[in-house]
Amino acid sequence: MKSVGNEHVAKQLASLYSSEEDSDCVVVFCVKAGSLQDTSATATGKPLPKRQRVGDGSVSFNNGGRGDLVIVGDPLPGHQLVLRFASEHFGAQLKQWDAKKFRNGTSEQSGPAPATVDGRPVLRVNLSQEEEEPSARTAIRYAYTGDVQTASIREALEIRRQAVNLRIKGCAAACMEIVKAKFAEASNTAVINYSMTLVDGGSSPTRGGCDAGTSLIGTAATGSQPALLPQLPPHPVLELYACEVLWPDLAHEPEFESILQSAKPQLIHYFGNVLQTLNSCGLRQQFLKLPPTAVEVLLESDDFGTDSESSILLLLATWMEANYVTIDACTCERLCRQVRLVQLSRPYLCSILPMLALDFETCSVSGPPQPAIAAAGTASGAPVPSISANTATVVAVAANAGINSGAAACSSSSSSAAWFPIRGAEAAFICSLATTQPPLRDALLAAGRKLYDLSSPWYSLRRRRQCVPATGLVYHWRISEQDLTQALAMLQPGGLCCTTGTFRGDSDFNYVVAGGFEWWPSIEYRQGAAEANLGLYSRMPGVYQVPGSRFTGPKPAVAIVAGVDADLSVHHWHHEAFVDDGVYFSTSKDIWPVGGGRGANVLALRQLQPLATAAATDVCSKGAGGGSSGMAPLAAWSEYVRDGEVAGKLTLLQPSIEHRHGAAEANMGLLSRMPEVNQAPGSCFTAKPAAATGPGANGNLSVPHWYRPGFLDDGVGTSKATCPAGGGRGVNVLASRQLPPPAASVATADVRSAKGDGGGSSGAAPLAAWSTCGIGR
C-alpha cells in the first residue's frame, strides 16, 4: 500500500505548532484601532485578548498609511517550511520579505526595512474584529496538524472563514465536513426537544395518536407538578441558522447548498408544527430568535403542519412583533407572501385581513395607495413574475398590489402597524375569491389575473400537513385549590365568581392557540347554585395590537366571531376513579364573539347540609391557609378537587367531514395512513416519514341520501385517486338543505357528561340542513 507521506515527519511538524523550537518567523494578529471594543469585559463576560499598538515594543512595521493597527493576542511562533507551502497568504508575505531583504543587502534604493522580531520576519493576519483571533489561530494550527478542533457549527464556520482569508489549503473543506458530520449525527439520533419533554410522576404526555411532528403541552392527569429535564445542547440546525452571517457565498461554495437543503427538513422537524411552536414557551422563544431565512423555510413548507392557515398568519405576526425593526421591506414582503391567504378561516378573511390592509394603507410611509396594476404586459394575460425566495437575491416585483417596487420598497421604514403589505382592494378580492363558488370564482380569477400576481403563495390552494390528528390533540389544564378557595371566599350572596385555568407545560400557559386565536378554560359559579359552569373563552392575540394599529384601543375596531372544534372536560372523581364531564364545541354551530365565552353547567356540586355557625368557625381550610371560610364551599367540590387542584383537558378536534360554514355542500373524503405496527421503536417509519408514499384504493365511498322516504347513495369513486399516505382526497357530494335563517336565540354548547345528561337541543338548527343525509335516522 502506497503511503501518503512519512508519518514520523508529519508528527514532528505537527508538534512544532506554537513552539519556539526552530521558529524562523512570527505571526501577529492585527485589527484597526477604530474597530476595537471597550477594554472592559465583553457582553459574554470573557476577557479580551492582549493588545499592543504596532510600533510599540519589539514589533514594528509600516502600514502603508491605512491607519493605526493594534496587535491582539500573543504573537505566534511560526515556521517558514510549514507556512510557506500550506498558506498562499503567508507564502506571498514571505516572498515579499525575501525580496526586501535582498534589496536591503545591495546598493539598490529600498523602502522601509521589513518588520522583524529578533531578526525573524513578521507575518501579519488582518482581522475585522478581535473576536476572530482564536479562529484564525485554529486555522493556522490546521496547517501544521491537518485537523480542525471545534465543538460547534459556529466555530467550524468561523475557522472556515479565516482559512479562506489566509488561503490555507484543505482547511475550508475540513470545516465543511465537520458541519456535515454534525447534521448527519443529528439526523441519526432521536433528538428530544427539551421544551416539550416533561417529568410528571413517570407519566408521559398524552399524544392522542398524533405523529412525531406533533407535540403537546400537557402531562398525564396526575397531581404532581411538571418539571423540566436538563436543557440539551442547541440543535445543529439552530446553530447553522443563528450564524447566517458566516455562510459562504453559494456561487463559490456550491457544496454548502447541499448542507442548507439537508438543514431544511431538520428545521421543520424540530419545530414540528404551528401549534407546537406557539403553545410551548421554549419553542416560541427559539422561533423568535430565528433569522428571516429560517422563518421562510418554515412558512413555505407543506410539511410544517398547522390546524389552520390562520395559525400560520398568527405565527408570522408573533415573529414580526419581535423582529420587524430588524428587517427591511423586501424581507418583510417575502415572508408575508408565504401565507396562503385564500385558505384563511372566515374570521381571518372577513375581519382580520381587512384590518391588516387598513393598517398598511394608513401607517405605511411608502405613499398613498397606488392602483393595483401589474407589470407591463399583464393586461393581455401575460404571467406576472413571482417574488424570488432565493436567500442570496431578493427581487421586488411590481405586481405586488400597490407596493412600490425596487429599491424604494426595500428602503422604506414604515410603522410596525404596517407590517403586512397588502392593500384593501386586494384583501377584498382574496376574501371574495375564497368564499365564492364556481362559476363566479372562475370569473373572479380571470378578472384578478390582470391586476394581481396570482402565482404568489397568497393564492395557493396547496394544503399544509394537518397537525391535529384524527383522535384529537390534548392539552391538560388545572385550577389550583388555593385559587378556587380564594374566589369562593370573596363571593357575596347571589354573586358570581370566575376562575380561569392554566395549561401544563414547560411554562404554565394561561391559553392555548388554535385557529389563529387564544383559548382558555374557565369555571363560573353563582353563590348557592347546585351546578357550576365549565366554559371556553377566546380572545384576540396580543401580537396584533401593535402601536398605531386599528386593533389597539379600549374599544374593538372590528367585530370578530369565531369558534373551535374542541372537547372541554373536567375530571369528576368517584370512588377513586374519574370520568370526564365536559362540553363539546363545533365550528358548525358554536360561534361567539372573540373576547367572550360559552359553556354549560356540567359540574354537579354536592348538596351539603347547612353548618351551624359555631361549628363553621372550627373548620379550617385544607389548602387556602386563610381562615375558616374555605372548608364549607370546597366541601361541595370534593368530587372535582383532587391533589390540590381541579383538573381537566381541552382536546382540539379535526372535523371528520370538511364543511365550510355557510357552504351549500360538504366534502366527503377517504383518508389513509401508515399502519402503526410498522412504526416500531428504532424503525425508519417512526418520527417523520422516511419515504413519500402515494397509495390508492379501488373502491367506492358513499353516504346514504334519504329522499321520499327511500335513500340512494351519493359517493366518490377511488379507482384512479392517489394521495400521500397520511392525507386524503374527496369530493363535495353532500348537498345540504338550504334553510332560512333561524330566529335569533342564544345557543348553548353541547353538553357531554359522563352521567348521561342529554345536552339540550342547541344542535338541531344546524343539523336540520343535514336531514337528507340520515341525521336522526
TrEMBL record:
Gene3D superfamilies: 1.25.40.420, Potassium Channel Kv1.1, Chain A (3.30.710.10). Residues 40-59 are annotated as: Disordered. InterPro entries: BACK (IPR011705), BTB-POZ/Galectin-3-binding (IPR051481), SKP1/BTB/POZ_sf (IPR011333). Residues 283-351 form the BACK domain. Pfam families: BACK. This is BACK domain-containing protein.
